[in-house]
Write a structure and sequence with these properties.
single chain; about 240 residues; alpha+beta; Glutaredoxin; 4-stranded mixed sheet; about 60% helix
Length: about 240
């Protein structure tokens, strides 16, 4: 049995971490049975980050590496139909979301004050009083250092959100009227896209990034389609 170790659900989403949600969505899309194991912190994770999987004693950390492992062991159910050119395009879009848009999302949640208020309440509100006061400051300071080290945190607020707006517009433009990012057939890229776009659209954190996403109705329709196909079909 595959065990998926990830953060506790938040904001009404399967996970507030787009990387955790991406990996769970991939497991659902590929039809692989799994069991969720929720952790409050990533301190005991192999690389100090979540998610990771344990597949009958084989531990694989990092969502991308875990998906590569699962494809190698169980077969590539989602991407085998792609040409090398299509696979290259899908990889480029994944990099845009995971290596660029991610940092704008991080800024909107952990640094920008409106988003930080909601993040602090959702992630730390249930902790004991002393920890509830100290932990948010500590984690937020780490996020600031990571953003600065990456480079995104060195920009002005307006510039950061403009970068995010352009990324969102690019994703919406590429999706167009298609059912999925790569066409009428789902692919692994959709696990990433759904996780990121839903974590922008469907959280109680108003921000210029969310406003940009709401300006593209096809993104809302896409997320609803993904949720209905892989999270609500046959449930309840």
């Amino acid at each position: 049995m595959i065990r998926l170790y990830q953060f506790l659900p938040a904001f009404g989403l399967p996970n507030a971490s787009p990387f955790c949600m991406k990996l769970e969505t991939y497991l659902r899309m590929a039809g692989l049975p799994y069991e969720n194991v929720y952790l409050a912190t990533p301190l005991k994770a192999p690389k100090g980050k979540l998610p990771y999987i344990d597949d009958d004693g084989c531990t694989v950390a990092d969502s991308g590496l875990a998906i590569d492992y699962l494809k190698g062991k169980y077969g590539d159910f989602l991407d085998a139909w792609m040409s090398p050119q299509e696979a290259a395009v899908a990889l480029a879009w994944r990099r845009l979301m995971e290596e660029n848009l991610y940092w704008v999302l991080l800024y909107s949640r952990w640094i920008d004050e409106p988003g930080w208020s909601a993040t602090r309440a959702a992630f730390f509100g249930g902790l004991p009083p002393l920890v509830r006061d100290l932990a948010p400051r500590y984690v937020r300071s780490i996020m600031k250092k990571e953003l600065w080290g990456h480079g995104m945190g060195r920009h002005r607020r307006g510039d950061i959100y403009e970068i995010g707006r352009r990324d969102i517009a690019a994703v919406a433009g590429f999706l167009g009227e298609k059912s999925y990012l790569m066409g009428e057939r789902p692919s692994t890229l959709d696990a990433t896209a759904y996780a990121f776009v839903a974590n922008i659209l469907w959280v109680p954190q108003e921000s210029p990034l969310q406003g940009a996403a709401k300006g593209h109705p096809n993104l809302e329709a896409y997320c609803r389609r993904m949720r209905e196909n892989y999270y609500t079909a046959g449930e309840g």
